[in-house]
Design goal:
The chain has helices spanning 36-48, 57-68, 72-79, 85-99, 108-120, 131-141, 153-162, 174-177, 184-194, 208-217; strands at residues 14-15, 21-22, 24-27, 145-148, 170-172, 201-205, 221-225, 238-240. With 248 residues, the protein is α/β, with parallel strands linked by helices.
């Protein structure tokens, strides 16, 4: 059984051990199911090497951190509808390049950079090693599962398929209900598609605020997937360091 929606009376019950029994599981996608940071940083280096010849490994690591972690305010403007997806991508690229004294000019140069990056990035998308075993266990138990993401449906559909996760058929994007996380409506749409109830549905993601806290506030059982050992003082919610912990 894959992640097709099902009525609560027809789903199985999955014993997660630490987190009790559940009838459905929803996942975040980026840096939860797929290693987006690897895909981003690898594609960024390939498309930018001609602009930064001779950059050392530490420099490329800094370049990647600026794009992925230090420009999230630009991505927030995209979520708010102030920028298109390519506009936020270009602004983040300019910020990273600008840190090293390179200005990406308007017009043809910018268009070429964004276009090539968009072409390369999907080819580097890969699932984390702990994803397939968990999905196999859910399939074996008859538990429906899906994904809820703070990006648009079609873009994330391509990402899941590129990572070999086409079995995840239930997918909710920001354009599905017109709101991003942490609005309760986006999590609850995932629950509706699974055919479960919020209180019997896990939501697992790498962002403590948007995933663990946001899903919990919507009535689901939010779990923070803290792969990198981040310290969050005062966090009293559920936390795991690997999806494998769900099978404990």
């Amino acid at each position: 059984m894959a992640s097709a929606a099902a009525h609560p009376s027809t789903t199985g019950v999955f014993d997660t051990g630490t987190f009790g029994t559940v009838r459905g599981v929803l996942f975040d996608i980026d840096d939860t199911l797929v290693d987006l940071e690897y895909a981003l940083t690898t594609a960024l280096r390939e498309v930018s090497e001609h602009l930064l010849p001779g950059m050392d490994t530490a420099g490329w690591e800094k370049f990647g951190r600026i794009f992925t972690h230090e420009t999230t305010h630009i991505y927030d403007r995209y979520l708010a509808g102030e920028l298109t997806f390519n506009e936020q991508r270009l602004l983040r690229g300019r910020a990273a390049l600008g840190h090293f004294g390179v200005e990406l000019a308007d017009g043809e140069e910018s268009h070429a950079w964004v276009t090539e990056y968009a072409r390369l990035q999907p080819s580097y998308v890969r699932a984390f090693d702990d994803v397939v075993p968990v999905l196999d266990a859910l399939d074996a138990a008859g538990i429906p599962y899906g994904a809820v993401s703070n990006n648009v449906h079609d873009y994330q559909r391509v990402k899941l398929d590129s990572a070999g996760l086409s079995r995840i058929s239930v997918l909710v994007g920001t354009d599905t209900v017109g709101v991003p996380k942490p609005d309760p409506a986006i999590y609850l749409e995932g629950v509706r598609l699974l055919g479960t109830r919020p209180e019997e549905t896990l939501y697992v993601g790498d962002n403590r605020l948007l995933d663990a806290d946001g899903a919990t506030a919507a009535g689901l059982r939010g779990i923070w997937l803290n792969r990198v050992g981040e310290t969050a003082e005062g966090f009293a919610g559920r936390e795991i360091d690997s999806l494998a912990r769900l099978l404990a």
